[in-house]
Task: inverse folding
């Protein structure tokens, strides 16, 4: 369970996050949506202790992210950031292998190698495993980064726009894989998405942010309505129903 | 497949260094060849007092400087910085100069300590600034380093001029192995210890090069690793300046060339970087002994030319990506 309690964040005098309190129970997929600049990445960075908390508290299974040693937290949660500047010349296999670092502390065991192989398979990277990152396409690199986070094999997986650069095939493939590991292995996944219909199809719960606040929180069928989407995004979005699911059509 | 290629690099580097090692023992102004050394008993003395220490000093210097450059590039996340130009060596120079002015009778060990402290401070300031520069403009960091190193070097020159110590400064500014004798180079072994230490944390250093957030995400104590890296860079540079003098380019070109060949996984590349640094410095020193035989050209000068050529090659033969 991730408990976020009274968290605020400000740069200079601008409020980025205002008094956010929310609980994410263990297991399941939670989608974080909202317009650009709403504060999604900032909130995720605080949960992943990439930035110091200015006020409020965040705990993960009761462990405070502010005071628990980094080594311990690295076995609890993995994070994929929205922007990754990787200047290093590493092969895909090497990069994904570093996802095992919290467990192996550098010396990959047979067990670690098995997890790495599995991740390479799962994200269709086996053919690319010997290639240097800088020689990959944007989507291939994104898949390598997701595979690295996956390899960390943590209870909590925080993914900031993992669908960036992915084509339709791999976007769907990734969402299905995430759904499966949430269902079969009880992982807790928090994922920032811009495509509301992916959120509607794969998430158990949608958290919507705007201007540094959580403005809506509920099941996909509760959130994906023209009214709700208007509150979140500020414009009229027609919603229709296909196969019993609400589908937003923000195209015209 | 990659593992095998990496092992080949390591073996080749080891062999080349072994050949240069023997060659270095056989070359010197005293004209004693290896065969002479083998026969006469005086030869053994020459070997033990002068040529072996000189050869070891070159190897230790080269390995140390290359590793210091590798670590500095990883921490600054920039391939175009090295301690000899970005202020570390100049800070060390300033440190030893100040202690020489204030307390001329201080022991070499104490002076090294002060030089290390100064190098630590100077490098810390450089890296703090480097981390603030926008990552979208990678050439700002080395440019800032050059200006920063230049300012520190100018300050050192001014102080040395005032204190009438310019001839000392000249010794620290241009690396030279001709004065190396048994009993006068052993401080360099500290560098070997630090290289071994770097090998122990090689995986962490590789992760650090991926950035602060990636490091924290993988559970690395980023601040502490930063401090460890700083100490390795500063102490290796300071010891080299004090014992040998500044040797430019090693820390810049060696890590880059090895990265081209093998990538940036330091667990694999670190030993090759160390060996290649040793090869480059030892080869330049041998060259310096041969060009105007029986006179010598300081290794700093030879390296200035060789390193510049390698650097230009490196710039103009960029790989297709990146
Ligand atoms: N380092 C910073 N300094 C000042 N303001 C910042 C900083 N980082 C983010 N912000 C501001 O904080 C707000 C929230 O940013 P954040 O990256 O969390 O948004 P987001 O919801 O992830 O948006 P996007 O969908 O575009 O990724 C934005 O208005 C942004 O301009
Ligand atoms: Mg964002």
Result:
């Amino acid at each position: 369970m991730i408990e976020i309690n009274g968290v605020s964040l400000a740069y200079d005098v601008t409020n980025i996050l205002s008094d956010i309190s929310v609980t994410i129970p263990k297991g399941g997929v939670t989608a974080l949506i909202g317009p650009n600049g709403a504060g999604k990445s900032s909130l995720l960075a605080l949960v992943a202790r990439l930035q110091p908390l200015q006020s409020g508290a965040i705990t993960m299974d009761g462990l405070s992210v502010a005071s628990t040693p980094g080594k311990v937290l690295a076995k609890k949660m993995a994070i994929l950031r929205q922007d990754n500047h990787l200047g290093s010349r590493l092969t895909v296999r090497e990069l994904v292998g570093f996802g095992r670092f919290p467990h192996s502390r550098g010396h990959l065991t047979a067990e670690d190698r098995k997890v790495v192989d599995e991740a390479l398979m799962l994200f269709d990277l086996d053919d690319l495993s010997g290639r240097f990152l800088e020689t990959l396409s944007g989507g291939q690199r994104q898949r390598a980064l997701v595979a690295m986070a996956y390899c960390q094999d943590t209870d909590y997986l925080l993914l900031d726009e993992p669908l960036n650069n992915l084509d339709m095939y791999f976007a769907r493939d990734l969402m299905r894989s995430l759904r499966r590991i949430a269902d079969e292995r009880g992982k807790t996944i928090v994922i920032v998405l811009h495509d509301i219909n992916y959120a509607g199809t794969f998430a158990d719960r949608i958290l919507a942010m705007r201007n540094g606040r959580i403005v809506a929180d509920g099941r996909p069928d509760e959130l994906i309505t023209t009214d709700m989407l208007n509150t979140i995004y500020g414009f009229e979005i027609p919603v229709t129903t296909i196969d019993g699911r609400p589908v937003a059509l923000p195209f015209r | 497949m990659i593992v095998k290629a990496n092992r080949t690099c390591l073996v080749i580097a080891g062999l080349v260094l072994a050949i240069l090692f023997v060659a270095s023992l056989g070359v010197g102004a005293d004209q004693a060849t290896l065969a002479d050394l083998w026969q006469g008993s005086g030869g053994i003395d020459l070997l033990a007092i002068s040529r072996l220490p000189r050869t070891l000093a070159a190897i230790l210097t080269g390995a140390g400087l290359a590793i210091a450059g590798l670590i500095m590039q990883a921490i600054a996340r920039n391939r175009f910085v090295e301690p000899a130009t970005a202020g570390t060596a100049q800070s060390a120079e300033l440190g030893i100069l100040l202690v020489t002015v204030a307390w001329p009778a201080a022991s070499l060990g104490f002076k090294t300590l002060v030089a290390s402290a100064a190098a630590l401070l100077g490098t810390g300031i450089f890296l703090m600034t480097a981390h603030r520069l926008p990552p979208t403009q990678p050439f700002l960091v080395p440019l800032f380093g050059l200006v920063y190193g230049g300012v520190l070097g100018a300050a050192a020159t001014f102080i040395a001029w005032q204190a009438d110590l310019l001839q000392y400064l000249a010794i620290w500014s241009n690396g030279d192995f001709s004065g190396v004798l048994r009993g006068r180079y052993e401080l360099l072994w500290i560098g070997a210890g630090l290289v071994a230490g770097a090998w122990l944390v090689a995986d962490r250093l590789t992760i650090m090069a991926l950035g602060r957030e990636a490091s924290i995400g993988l559970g690395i104590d980023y601040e502490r690793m930063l401090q460890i890296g700083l100490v390795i860079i500063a102490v290796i540079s300071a010891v080299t300046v004090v014992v040998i003098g500044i040797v430019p380019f090693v820390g810049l070109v060696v890590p880059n060339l090895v990265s081209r060949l093998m990538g940036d996984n330091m667990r694999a590349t670190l030993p090759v970087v160390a060996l290649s640094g040793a090869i480059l410095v030892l080869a330049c020193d041998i060259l310096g002994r041969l060009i105007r035989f029986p006179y010598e050209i300081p290794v700093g000068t030879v390296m200035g030319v060789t390193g510049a050529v390698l650097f230009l090659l490196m710039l103009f033969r960029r790989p297709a990506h990146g």
In short: The radius of gyration of chain A is 18 Å. The longest strand of chain A covers residues 14-24.
